[in-house]
Design a protein that fits this description.
about 140 residues; mainly alpha; two-stranded antiparallel sheet; 2 strands; elongated; transmembrane helix; Ion transport domain-containing protein; Ion_trans_dom
């Protein structure tokens, strides 16, 4: 009798996901263990029709993996700029020609896109430790900093 009840518990749909208190460790749940709660998950946040619901679909989480890749590429572009621009100023009188000019224009375009992207990037409020997804607050924080 006892073994059948333990079998029914193991086949209750848990599938080793670690969702229960005695579940096995799962790497997908690691962020829940390490990071503080960042407000309600997007699926649970119910907002009435209006500005809040429209804004949320365009807001980017700073923890999003695609945003992290973007951030990494921006670091590489900053390193490129820090290395190349002094040589351009010193040896080319700040007017590069050919492929270097095209590369500079592309880098500048990426920086411009990054400025616009920051107006849609949620942030963690230092006082409440919650993820702020309100577009007006994000804009005001970005403009005032």
């Amino acid at each position: 009798m006892r073994s059948s009840s333990s079998e029914s518990r193991s086949s209750s749909g848990n599938d080793g996901e670690g969702s229960g208190p005695s579940g096995s460790f799962n790497l997908r749940n690691l962020s829940k263990l390490i990071l503080p709660p960042l407000g309600k998950p997007a699926g649970q946040a119910h907002q009435p029709h209006g500005a809040g619901s429209i804004n949320d679909k365009w807001i980017i989480s700073p923890l999003n993996s695609r945003y992290r890749c973007w951030e990494t590429s921006m670091v590489v572009l900053v390193a490129y700029s820090a290395w190349v621009y002094p040589f351009e100023v010193a040896f080319m009188n700040a007017s590069p020609k050919g492929g270097l000019e095209v590369a500079d224009i592309v880098v500048d375009l990426f920086f411009a896109v990054d400025i616009v992207l920051n107006f849609f990037l949620a942030y963690i409020d230092s006082r409440t430790q919650l993820l702020v997804r309100d577009r007006r607050k994000i804009t005001m924080r970005y403009v005032h900093i």
